[in-house]
Task: inverse folding
């Protein structure tokens, strides 16, 4: 097989679109196969192990101690145990309500992402492991077994969560990067979900790396997330801004609600959301 065209394509992608890792890869499965008779309702899934791990390894700013987590055998085992527990969910049972389903899949997405990064760590970015041409792509090839199928991060985001029509999920699922919403250091819970998602959205837009507004300017600078998934918030910029207005700082809310604002998008920082990043000033980095 002539690989020359692929090599050229990878070089061009790296130059113009960011880092690209190309190497022989295959699908990686996590979780386990559970017989149908042994599956339980999503409403019975216990997220306590995930909650405990988040409290141990995630700080108040959403940065993760990947190094400490990976070096802690018991913590790595606990994550695997939690993922195995997620596999036992009967996602087709009708007794779980939307809040329970959302909490399940948001937790699953974030736990699977952390698992994917821990497999590769040390690394500087998830984009080092998302090959666009061929080879392993963490978003597509790392799959969680649930209810007789296997779901990638792309599957969970695009085929499940986005189709539940709550755009606040975009401030909850975390792609292990600094421009992502911060990872909460607690698990999502059905009974607290609305408050958690609302707080996430407010925190997101209070972060000047994700939202900027100069009161003297008619332009609102938004995270690229609102560009990539804008249709989930509204059919056009005006609808999108009205949808996010309740979560914006007070000074920017009237402009967003007016329908007269111009929209620009901020550059996305794909650097790993790692506590050991010196730019975060974390003691673990010194």
Result:
């Amino acid at each position: 097989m002539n690989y020359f065209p692929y090599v050229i394509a990878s070089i061009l992608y790296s130059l113009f679109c960011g880092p690209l890792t190309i190497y022989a890869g295959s699908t990686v499965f996590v979780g386990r196969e559970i017989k149908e008779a042994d599956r339980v309702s999503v409403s019975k899934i216990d997220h306590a192990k995930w909650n405990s791990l988040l409290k141990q390894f995630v700080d108040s700013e959403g940065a993760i101690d990947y190094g400490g987590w990976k070096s802690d055998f018991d913590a790595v085992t606990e994550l695997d145990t939690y993922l195995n527990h997620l596999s036992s969910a009967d996602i087709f049972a009708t007794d779980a309500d939307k809040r329970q389903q959302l909490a399940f899949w948001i937790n699953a997405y974030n736990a699977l992402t952390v698992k994917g990064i821990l497999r590769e760590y040390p690394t500087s970015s998830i984009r080092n492991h998302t090959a666009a041409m061929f080879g392993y792509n963490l978003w597509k090839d790392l799959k969680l077994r649930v209810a007789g199928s296997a779901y990638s991060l792309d599957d969970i985001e695009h085929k499940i969560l986005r189709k539940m029509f709550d755009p606040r999920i975009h401030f909850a699922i975390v792609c292990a990067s600094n421009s992502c919403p911060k990872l909460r250091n607690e698990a999502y819970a059905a009974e607290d979900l609305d408050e958690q998602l609302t707080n996430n959205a407010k925190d997101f837009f209070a972060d000047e790396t994700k939202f900027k507004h100069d009161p003297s300017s008619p332009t609102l600078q938004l995270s690229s997330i609102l560009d990539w998934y804008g249709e989930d918030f509204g059919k056009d910029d005006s609808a999108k801004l009205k949808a996010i207005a309740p979560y914006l700082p007070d000074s920017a809310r009237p402009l967003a609600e007016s329908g007269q604002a111009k929209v620009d998008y901020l550059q996305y920082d794909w650097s790993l959301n790692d506590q050991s990043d010196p730019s975060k000033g974390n003691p673990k980095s010194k």
In short: The longest strand covers residues 142-146. Confidence is low (pLDDT under 50) at residues 1-24, 281-286. Residues 98-120 form the longest helix (23 residues).
